[in-house]
Amino acid sequence: MFPQLLANGLVEGSFYALLALGFALIFGASRVFHVAHGSVYAVAAYLLYLFFSIWRLPFFLALLLTVALASLLGILIELLIYRPLERRGASHMLVLMASIGTLIFIDNLVEMIFGGDNKIIGIGSGLQEGIPLGPIVFTYLQLINLGAAVAAVLLLNYFRLRTAPGKALRAVIISPTMARVVGIDIGRVRILAFGLGSALAAVSAVMSAVDLGFQPGQGLPVVLVAAIAVLVGGVDTFTGAALGGLILGLAMNLGIWRIGPEWREALAFGVMLIVILAKPTGLYGRALEKYEV
Amino acid sequence: MMPRLAVTALSVLLSTAVLAPPAPATEHVYRIGALLIMSGRAKYYGEVMNRGVQMAVEDVNAAGGVKGKKFEVVIEDWGYDTKRAVPGFIKLAEVDRIPVVITGGSDAVLAIAPQAEKLRAVNFNAAANSADIRKAGDYTFSNLNDAVVTASALADFVFDKKKLRKMVFLSENTEYGLSNAKVFGARFKERGGQMLDEVLYIQNSSDFKSHLTKVKASNPEGVVLIGTASDVGRVLKQAKQLGIKAQWFGSAEGVTKVMLDLAEGAAEGFIYVDNAFDPQGGMNPKVRALAERYRARHNEDPILYVATHYDAIRLIARAIELGGYSGEGIKNGLYQIRSHEGWLGIITFDKDGAVTLPVLMKTVKDGKLVLYQE
User: Fold this and answer.
1) CB contact under 8 A, B241 and A130
2) pLDDT tens for residues B84-119?
3) What share of chain A in percent tops pLDDT 70?
4) Is B242 on the interface with A (CB under 8 A)?
5) Out of A8, A118, A217, whose CB is closest to B213?
6) ipTM reported for the complex, 2 dp
7) pTM (2 d.p.)
8) Strand (E) positions, chain B?
9) In a mutagenesis test of the A interface, which of B207, B234, B237 is the best target, namely the one with the most A β-carbons within 10 Å?
C-alpha cells in the first residue's frame, strides 16, 4: 500500500504545488488573500468544457484559450474589484470579503449557465488506463499531469530569475516599498502576478478536470488547500509554496496509511496548524512585515 | 445623500418582501410539500423525483382531486445539504402550514424527524433507506425498503449466490452509508463471511485514489460501494484505473444514467440490490402504462425514485381521504392504509411507518441496467 500511496501523494502534491504557486504569486505581489482564485479555477474547467466538449475545438487550442481567458479573468478581478477598493482606502478585511463575494457570485453564475450536474472531459479512455509499474499504478494522464506540473514550475522559476519582469515581481514580493523607490511600477507588476497566477490555476483546473471531472462549487475547497500549502511552505517563497503543495499532497495520502481516509482533509489542516505553530512564517519563509486585517 | 437614501429604501422594500406573511392556504386546493434536490451535484435525482410527483398530481387532479379539492405541490430545494433540509421542512410545515412534506436523503430525513414530531407534520420519506428511519418517530413514514431489508438481502446474495467470503465496504460517511455498512456487515458476518475493512469517504469528493488504495491493499473478493451516483461512477472508474479486480456490489440509489456516464464503461458487471422495481412496468398493466407514459414524456426509462414519489402522492391522497387534511389526520390515515396498489407493489405501513417490499438483484450489462441472472 505504501508505494501506491506515495505515488498518489506525488501526483496530488504536484497539483497542489501549481495551485499554491499561483496563489503565492498573487498574494506576494498584492498582499490580497485572493479567495476568488477559486472561481478562476472553477471557470477554467468550464471554459475547457465549452471549447473542447461543446464547440469541439482541438484540445491544445481549447487549452490555450482556457488559460488565456482564465488569466484575463484574474486580471479583471484585480482591476475591477481589488484596485478600486484599495484606492478608496478599504481595509484588508473588506477586500477579503469582496474576494469571497466574487467567488460566490462567479460560482453561482457558472452553475446557472452550465447546470449543477457533474461534467467530464471526454479525452479518450486510452490516456486514463492504468499502467502497472511494479507495485504502483499510474495512468498516462497522471504522468502527463506530473510532467506538466514540473515543467510549469521550472518555467516559472526561469521567468522569475532570468527575466526583467520576473525580477520586478520578486522585488515587489520582497518589499513593495523598496520596489516603488527604485521605480518599479507596482500596478503593472500586480497585473502580471494576477495574470500568471490565474494561468497556473487554469492549468491545475485542466489537469483535475480531465482526470476527475468537475462540478460547481469546487473552487473554495481548492483555494483553501492552496492557501494552506502557501502557509505551510512560506508565504514569500516560490520554492516554499511549491514544496508546501507537495508536502500537503503527500501528507493527505500517506496519512491514511494509519488513519481512515475520511480524515484526509482534516490532515491538511492538521499539518498547517503544526507548521505555523512551530514556525509562523512557514517552513521556508522569511519574516514578513506585520499586516492588519 | 441620494444614493444612501436609495439603498435604504431598497433594503426596506426587500426586507418587507422577505418578512411578509405567507399567502394563506387557498380553500380550493390541498397543498403538499416536497423537499427535493433542485440544485447541485445530485440535481438529477430531484428532477426525476419531481417528475414522479407531477405525474401523480396530474392523475389525482384528473380524477377530481380528493374530497373535491385538487392537489398543489410546493417545492423547496435542499440541494442535498442537510443544513438546508431542516429549514426547508420548517418553512413548508410551519410558515406555509403544509401538513405533509415528501422528503429524502437519510441524513435529512433523520434530521427532520424531530421537527416533524414537534410541528405535527408528516415527514414522508420517498428516497432514503437508513435503518434508523423506522425508529425516527410517529410522524415519519417510508414507502420504500430500508437498509434492514436491502443490505441484508445483498449480504445473503453475496454469500449464497456469489459464494464470496472476504468483503470490503466502501461508502460515503453519512447516515446512508453507515447504516448500510452496519446492516450488511452484521448480516455477512452472521452468515460466516469476513469483513476485511470499512473505508469511508466524504461525499462529493473527486479523487478516491487514496481510499481505493486502501481497498486494494485488503485484497477483497468483493467490494460493496454505497454512495450517490456521481460518487459511485467516479469510484468505479478510478478503481479500474488502479487495477482492482474485485467484484463490485451496491444499492440502487447509486445507479443512474449519471453513474454510468461518469464510470465511462467501468460499471460493467456492477451488481446492485433494488426494490422490486421494473423500469418496463412488469406484469401489471396499470404500472406498464405508467412506465410507458413516463418514457414517452421524458425519453428515458423511469428509475426507482420516480415510482416512490408517484406512490407518495397517491398514498397521501388516500391518507387524506381516510384521516383528513391535517398532520395528525394524514398520519392516522397512513397507518390505516391496507394493501394499497402502488407502482412499487402492494403497500401497507407497519407500526413503525415502514414497509417491506420484495427486492431484486440487478446488474449493468452492455451499459444497460438489467435483471441479474446467473
Assistant:
1) yes
2) 999 999 999 999 999 999 999 999 999 999 999 999
3) 96
4) yes
5) A8
6) 0.79
7) 0.80
8) 29-36, 70-77, 100-103, 122-125, 140-142, 166-172, 194-201, 222-226, 247-251, 271-275, 340-342, 345-347, 359-365, 368-371
9) B207
